[in-house]
TrEMBL record, chains A, B:
One of its GO terms (biological process) is 'de novo' IMP biosynthetic process. Pathway: Purine metabolism; IMP biosynthesis via de novo pathway; 5-amino-1-(5-phospho-D-ribosyl)imidazole-4-carboxylate from 5-amino-1-(5-phospho-D-ribosyl)imidazole (N5-CAIR route): step 1/2. This is N5-carboxyaminoimidazole ribonucleotide synthase. Catalyzes the ATP-dependent conversion of 5-aminoimidazole ribonucleotide (AIR) and HCO(3)- to N5-carboxyaminoimidazole ribonucleotide (N5-CAIR). Catalyzes the ATP-dependent conversion of 5-aminoimidazole ribonucleotide (AIR) and HCO(3)(-) to N5-carboxyaminoimidazole ribonucleotide (N5-CAIR). Belongs to the PurK/PurT family. ATP binds at residues 106, 146, 151-157, 181-184, 189, 212, 265-266. The keyword Zinc does not apply. It comes from the Bacteria. Transmembrane segments: none annotated. Homodimer. It comes from Cypionkella aquatica. It catalyses: 5-amino-1-(5-phospho-beta-D-ribosyl)imidazole + hydrogencarbonate + ATP = 5-carboxyamino-1-(5-phospho-D-ribosyl)imidazole + ADP + phosphate + 2 H(+). HAMAP family: PurK.
Length: 356, 356
């Protein structure tokens, strides 16, 4: 396997908290990181070797960035195609373009997952109000209308309680292509943080159980409430997705647990908020796992030494920091963001459950 | 308690691996770090917000550094007095000057420890060859002659097997003030990583058991072989040292285990190589504990969720990296040093012992 020599540089598209924690993991493995980020003073800049501040339409900046690194990865999936074209001409992008294309488009994603024999919520592509009305007639209500592209943390979504909500929901998409998803009845959500190496080996962490608040992940708890057979299903299903994509890196796979088995909610071709618990539950966390994969190193096996409850600190939650710092067995991870806006992820805590 | 606001900057004297790991811990708590280091491209620079490359005799650079930060700490104890004077005129230095002065001088250190009722190996100050001969007559052989100042990892030391070695040993000190230490018969060495907060609270990690190779720490194993009463003695003794110094920060206290009880080998007023295991054994590691202390935050309680064996990667040990990366439950921490010289600390691994 062709692994990056010590001292090599890994380019990361995006300078948020995920890029920040990827940079720290890369440093721990003896690599440098170079962050590409349009906004000034991104969280990752504090702990990275180099930072380029430029937009994704600045092809010269992208080319200089690519030329300065040995491999390119990313912390978010909504990267413009032209930018990817410019980068890929110079350096490998891991995970690959196909994984990105699929996760950038909810219809492509659901078509892909369904083609693997996996179950998704019922869905239909919507371009026009008549499309939407027809989709509601087939899928029923309640349902949720989402833009096909660029969705993140509940943005670009409209709930449809009855058929009469159709016009308003359609208008809220502002002409963007969208997808109607049927509601499904599930008891809880789990996610699998899965990794695939350059050599094709796959390693998964034990699924965590997610609780959302106001459309944003609130807590992830390990272990999840899952029967042994569903736990095994979850991991095999994630591995099937990674193998089908010839994927290299870490992926987050969100699953609904239903009486009929697991339903795939969505996949994210990157380290994932629901995998932050691994920082204090495993010898090799998801950030290091991702760096190992894109650098061509052997993967960690994903074993968990401790149970963990991860809690996101959103907006004003950061005001609880003085109390949190007094808790025992509580690992604090802040992102260095100056201003606590509503809905902004300021940090997270991992509460470690010590065994006897 | 007057704690540093989020986004404050912590100045660190020294840019080696300890400064590097302190910088990562500071970032995790939402602080920036500024490294002061004479040599170019120090390991800490990769993960720090700012770096000043200047010598400790460059008073203007020291003053600019101090003015740019909110508090100053250090990763090594041999900082020139004039530099400390310049810095302390502008910003608090934590741990304080007294702790530094004592640990910079083996005689002061032993006098201090003895004054607290703690036991050290027999010792005598040596300026001249007649001093040394008299000391050998009192203390006996074998013994070890060490420079009073600037000792580190076996440098500046000469073993004295018989009285006839006196002249050669004295000559090897090159005129530096030195101290003769008697050998003591001990079964093993342990160290306590202890911390004291700005509010005077003390928290200690469980003692680790150290094995040295060629005068350099090789492994630290948790838990150490220690009876409950010696474990308690070790922690109380460390707390006594910290309280006597009105200390703020993490200190490493090396102890010899003998049939007569614990003998203090030496103290280091900083995070310590024998505390690296805490990165994968505790929710709050020694680096974060030190940053919490110097920033005036509450200390973590030092509880251990997992047993750990830490192994240093010295010089060519780094060539074993491909095998090490394939081990399960093994956390790798590299320092980003380009060249593997003999005796150079390149990184360490923490092997986590999973329970049940």
């Amino acid at each position: 396997m062709n692994s990056l020599p010590l001292g090599s540089s890994i380019g990361i598209l995006g300078g948020g908290q995920l890029g920040r924690m990827l940079s720290v993991a890369a440093a721990r493995l003896g690599y440098k990181t170079h962050i590409f980020e349009p906004s000034a003073h991104p969280p990752a800049a504090e702990v990275a070797h180099a930072v380029t501040t430029a937009g994704y339409d600045d092809i010269a900046a992208l080319q200089a960035f690519a030329a300065s690194v040995d491999v390119i990865t990313y912390e978010f999936e909504n990267i413009p195609t032209a930018a990817l074209d410019a980068l890929e001409a110079l350096r490998p992008i891991r995970p690959n373009r196909r994984a990105l294309a699929i996760s950038q488009d909810r219809i492509l994603e659901k078509d892909f997952l369904t083609s693997l024999g996996l179950t998704c919520a019922p869905y239909a592509a919507v371009q026009s109000l008549p499309d939407l009305e027809a989709a509601i007639a087939t899928i029923g209500t309640p349902a949720i209308l989402k833009t096909t592209r660029l969705g993140y943390d509940g943005k670009g979504q409209a709930r449809i309680k009855t058929a009469e909500d159709a016009a308003e929901a359609h208008a809220s998409m502002k002409g963007a292509a969208s997808v109607l998803e049927g509601f499904i009845s599930f008891s809880h959500e789990v996610s699998v943080i899965a990794a695939r190496g350059l050599d094709g080996s796959v390693a998964c962490y034990d699924p965590g159980e997610n609780v959302h608040k106001d459309g944003i992940l609130h807590t992830t708890t390990l272990p999840a409430k899952l029967s042994p057979s569903l736990r095994s299903d979850a991991i095999l299903l994630a591995a099937r997705i990674l193998n089908a994509l010839d994927y290299v890196g870490v992926m987050g796979v969100e699953l609904f647990v239903t009486p009929q088995g697991l339903i795939v909610n969505e996949i994210a071709p990157r380290v994932h908020n629901s995998g932050h618990w691994t920082q204090n539950g495993c010898a090799v966390d998801q950030f290091e796992q991702h760096i190992r994969a894109v650098a061509g190193l052997p993967l960690g096996d994903g074993a968990r030494h401790s149970d963990v409850v991860m809690e996101n600190l959103i907006g004003d939650d950061i005001a609880r920091l003085p109390q949190i710092l007094r808790e025992n067995d509580c690992a604090v991870h802040l992102y260095g963001k100056a201003e606590a806006r509503a809905g902004r992820k300021m940090g997270h805590v991992n509460r470690v459950i010590r065994k006897g």
